[in-house]
Amino acid sequence: MKKAAVIGARSMLGSHVVAQLQACGVETLSVGRSSEDDLFFDLEGAPAGTSGASADIVFHCASSFGDDSDAGLRQNYATNTTSSLGVGELVLRLKARALVYAGSIWSYEDLNRDRFTSYGLTKALAEQMLNWQLHKQGKLFCSLRLSQLYDTEGRCCAHQPWFGRIIAYASRGATIRMPDSRGSQNFLHVRDAADLMIRAAEKGLSGVHAAVNPAPLSYRDIADIAYAVFDRGGAVEVAPEKTPFRPVDTPAAGETLTSLGKLSLITMHEGISGIRDACTAGAFGPMDVK
User: 180: exposed, middle or buried (C-beta count within 10 Å: 0-12, 13-18, 19+)?
Assistant: First the structure.
């Protein structure tokens, strides 16, 4: 792989994919709506013009995270599903050999039925459409269904508010009142997620695969680690008046990690230590979650 195009290059995941590709000497094209992107592409608009550009691989890291209201469903369907027509055309115009897609564990309807929202549904529909289009083109399609992503800079807080709140309280030495943890969550550091996508491209992986952490943790586990890492005092209290955290069920990921040669992942202790050492805890929050 000498050149790659990244849809959503300015997103949390996309920016890490770009950084890791460039660190490996791969030329990158950013694809998105910003005037600073190399190629303009609006997921809800017309297909992108490529101006003769080419790429070996296209990485798709952009999504809509609308809710289940009528407006949210329309937004998710337009951005996540209908846009796959334009994405398929972009792959063809760039003469890329493969598309690597950032899927989601929330597309597993049978595992987390109470969390199978319009987001997971429209991401799953996009996988089907992209796989069909690229198969017709004679190109590879790979989707890695990623679990709950977190980062060092705090951008994850928009979608992981309780993780953000744990870091905010622990880093200040304040006591946090949390719902009871009745099962595990599945958090994956965004650097690992980006690395897995790049490995999938390099190894020519195709199909839909779970990309999750084989060592799930409850929110209480994460809080205990955070308070130990920051070591500034404070405590974790269970708030019985709050609805307990729902567990997250995921498929086994051992086969995917092994096939990609990913022998180890960033542990939660290492990830939170990275936040402490980077002095970015102030970017995490909110200080209260209903």
Answer: middle
pLDDT at 178: 95
Q: Which residues pair with 209 in a beta bridge?
A: 144
As a residue count, the chain comes to 290
Q: For the chain, list the strands marked E by DSSP.
A: 3-7, 27-32, 39-40, 57-60, 98-104, 140-146, 148-150, 176-178, 187-189, 207-211, 236-238
Are the C-beta atoms of residues 28 and 2 closer than 8 Å to each other?
no
| Residues 6+ away with beta carbon under 8 Å from 226 | 166, 167, 170, 171, 272
- Which residues lie below 8 Å from residue 234, measured CB to CB, with a gap of 6+? 169, 170, 172, 173, 174, 175, 176, 227
Cα–chain center distance at 284:
18
Peptide bond into 244 cis (omega under 30): no
**Tens digit of pLDDT for each residue in 199-208?**
999 999 999 9
User: 98: which strand partners?
Assistant: 57, 140
* DSSP helix/strand/coil, 290: coil
Structure tokens at 185: 């969550």
Of 49-53, 56-60, 62-66, 180-184, the poorest mean pLDDT is in: 49-53
Res. 290: pLDDT tops 80: no
Q: Is residue 264 pLDDT above 60, yes or no?
A: yes
Sign of the alpha-carbon dihedral angle for 243, 214, 273, 22 = negative
SS3 for 74? helix
pLDDT tens digits, 24-56 = 999 999 999 888 999 998 887 766 677 789 999
- Global pTM reads 0.94
**CA dist., res. 154 & res. 131, Å (int):** 33
